[in-house]
Structure formats: structure tokens, C-alpha cells
Amino acid sequence: MKINKAKIKKYLKNLKIKKKIIELKENIIELKRKLDKHGKKGYIVLGIILVFLLTTITFGRYIYNEIRDFYLSSKNFYFNSDKLTTNRAIYQVENWSAVDPYTITINLNNSKNNLVHTSSDINYEISYLCSSNVLCSVNSTGGTLYSSEGSSYFNAVMTPNDIFKVGDEAFIEITVKSTYPYKKTLRGRFILKVGKSGLSYTIDDKKGRPYFNFNITNTIDYYLVKEAFGNYSVNDRIDRLTYISLEDIDKRKCLSAEVTLTFDPEKVILDTTNTAYLKKENYTIVKINGYDYINSITFRMDSESSEVVKFYKADTNLDYTYPIVNNTSIINFNYSE
Predict the structure, then answer these.
(1) Looking at the domain covering 199-220+256-336, what would its CATH class be?
(2) pTM of structure
């Protein structure tokens, strides 16, 4: 009779696992008995021990990642991102409109600094998971970061797939793993939190690009009468359909939102071909070295609409992405209804 050693080995392995499970259950029962005996104090002590263990494990993982980064650096291997980290970066965007798709641009690079780079090509894979209330997509599953190029990027898009209310959240977690010549994992979780109806804004930028886009979303679904006309008084609300049916002269007497952007023209320059500039209500200028530069602009936004305002950067090495990457915006944003 022929003995199947593989099956016997598998059987013994499963038997060991079953014994371990039985032992674990017995230990849990014994622990509960002891905790019940000591009452509330016993559970408090257990809670303190668990917190300590979790903190130790988290810190240990952080130390491991730092040591591994040091080891990879000793091999002249650099694989980094502007938003993802080895210890899983976490970002939260407040006042998400939950109306338009939200795009996150992830930049990858092979640099330690401007002078030191990885000399070989880097192969990598991209994966993601997201909450069930959004549809997520990433325009790449991976690729090669060529040493001659030094950088690469991909976009992740979160599209609302549910009815949201103020305070609701959605998330996407993105993982990028290098597979050659060394293994390294970068992660980031991006949380979008729905805010009250109003205006929100983001800045889409990256290092090395001469411009950035200032994106504004207006989720207000009505207009306010600012100057009485016909049967309407000041501060009356008008819905979008009613507003669309008005004569142009009466539309000017209504307002959904008026936006003012203020900025330093020594750092950023407004693109005056923007529709926001062409439909401006007002603007201000400042003299720099004898020349006039725009340093603020005011314009109207329609109800439930969006606007993209383009700015050019004085220093292309800077990344003004907001709110991810930077906690404060390079553009001062104000609006009124």
C-alpha cells in the first residue's frame, strides 16, 4: 500500500491547528473567569494592557519601516510619493460637496533629492479599496518608473454612489508596491467628509509643473434676490429653474455666490484667459518693481456649478496641493451669498 506523505503531513498540520484553537478557547474561558472574579478592576487592567500592546505593535511597525528605508537607501534605492508613505499616510478632506467626482493625483519619484536618484528602473503595482458609497477607479494598475524620467503619476477618482448627508464619509485607500529591484510598499488613505451646503475648494498641483488649478464647487441650490423686481423682494429665495426663466436684467439682481480670491503675485500669477477673470465683478492690483499685478479677483458663481481658476507659479519646485499635502491654501478664499 502506497503512503501519501503529503496528505499525512497536511492532516497532522490541521490537527495541530485544531489543538491550538481548542487551547485558545480554553484560555479565553479561563481569562473571562478570572476577570469576572476580580470584577470591574480586572477589565480596566486588561484594557490598559491591550492599549499598551497595540501602541507597542504600531510603534514597532514604524521602527521597522524606518530601518528598512535606511537599508534600501544604503542600496541607493529610492521609491517615494508626494502623498503615500511606508507608514500609511491618512488625509481627511472637510466640506466635501458629494456632488462632483473627486480626483486625487498620486506622484511617484525615484529621488532622494535633486542630485541623488535610483540608477535602475523600478517596477511597481497599484491596488486600492474604497467604501461602498462611492465608485472608485484608478487609471493605472502599475508600470515602470524609468530611471531616465525620475517621476510618474496616476489618478484615482471617487464618484458619489449614494445619497449623502452632512457628516457622512467616504474613503479610498491606495497601495503602491515596488516589485523590482527591491520591494517597498507605500500607502495612503483619503477620507472625504460631507460638509454643509455651500462652497468648497481644492488646489490640484505637483512639483515641476509651472501652474496649478484652483477648483471651486458651489453646492448651493438657490439664488437670493439682491435687488427687488417684479413680485420679488430683497432676500427672497429663487430656485434654479425659476432663475433660468428670468430675463438677463433680472438675473443680475439675483445671486447664488460671489467669490473673492486674494493672492501674492510674487508667488502666483493669475491666468487672465480664465473664464473667472473674463466675467469678473471686480479686481485689485498692486505695484511690484513699477509694474501692475492683479492680487485679487471677485466673480459670481451660478447655483450648483463649478469653476476652475488657473494660476502660474513663480517657483515650479513647490507643490501647492490643498488640502492634501498642505494644511493651508496659497490662495485666500472668501465668498458671500
Answers:
(1) mainly beta
(2) 0.64
